[in-house]
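Predict both folds.
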Amino acid sequence: MQKRIEPPVLLSRTLVFVLASALVVLGVLFTTLYRMFPLQRPQIFFLTTEIRDDQVVQLESMTPNNENLDMYKTAFVREYIKYRNEFFSNPAKMLGKWNAESGIVRKTSSQDVYAKALNTKMINEVISGATDLNFECLVFFKHDPLYFAADDAYQVKFTYFCTDNTTGQATQKDYTIKLRIKDENNAQIKWAERIDNPLGLQVTEYTVIDGPGDPLDTAF
């Protein structure tokens, strides 16, 4: 006599299968969400109608949550350190980042800070058209930037790791940088810059307080 699965048993097995599948999907979802946080930086959004990229926007005084603003400024400091010091063997890309009118380093530095950066060896070689810069340098932070309210400045510690793409030779140097930024009420930014620097922040001091000189002078 052929065995037959009774409907209640079949139903219970189906429910177990559906429940197990749902748990697997939820597990994957929670794992994905967990890996997304914390986000790299808080992002500021502008809501508007259609507007030109060269339109100038005036930033009015606002009162964001202090914790979110501090997180944004900390992320800005990290990004500035990387934009200023990381080097890739692509002169056109580096020239655009360092020297172009719309370059991120130029836009986010005060005139004095930018003038000092232009005097470094690596930036001078890129601007002069050097083509034999076959190495790369990366920034690895030791911890998040520390803010010292008494000095109104940030302190950043990082390791500067450079590799010669031809020989494979590598150097590793440690630095501590003191960095001060300003954010002005009623600052003006171009609409096209709202993603890179929505608050119009500028670095007004960039000082090496520990390390073998400016990283851009000491790669190799």
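Second protein follows, with its predicted structure tokens after the sequence.
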Amino acid sequence: MRTAPFVLIFSVLVLSFSGCEKGKTSIGGSQSAIGEVGVTVETAGTSGFGVSNAIAEVVALEKGVSEYSGSATVTNAAIKNMLSNAPGVTISGNTVTVTGVKMKVTTDGIESVEGFHPGVIVDYNAKVGDTYPMKGNNRSRKVVSRSTDDDYFWGGWMLIKVIEVEEPTNSMGIARTTYWANHRWGMVGIEFELDDGTILDFPIYNSANN
């Protein structure tokens, strides 16, 4: 699987509540503009982690599934070492590329099809406590918070509402991944907690929105 590599490249680029939904396995909704061919996903402020020029692009869209290719300049030896052990990754000097990652990106949320641990990443209609099984193992992502006010600083100048989802990654040196998503802007931030306790926190910017 390309789970950790594309998380580290693409993701580095790449209300009130009552009750909860257990085990949602697929996302509904209409095709989002964020998943259309040509849309790019970038990040900023990652050079301190030894990652720069990180960008992914939707290169194909078929039957509601968007295919991404991504690349980044990685000078951090530890990160390159993790990536070097993963299939589907090409490393040439400090340039790391990944292809063939597939996601379902709709007006209702985001679902990994191939590349991440497959399964729903976020449902914009989520309630705190909802869980999303990660296919291929017995772990689940879980919604841990949802904004009722604009309280997440993003884009360098605005506050937005977000849904926060935690994932027990336990793979390729990553202990936990936390996602922040917004119904209009899509994925807006990702944080990785590595096995050694290091925290890598990346804002995410799509070139389109819902």
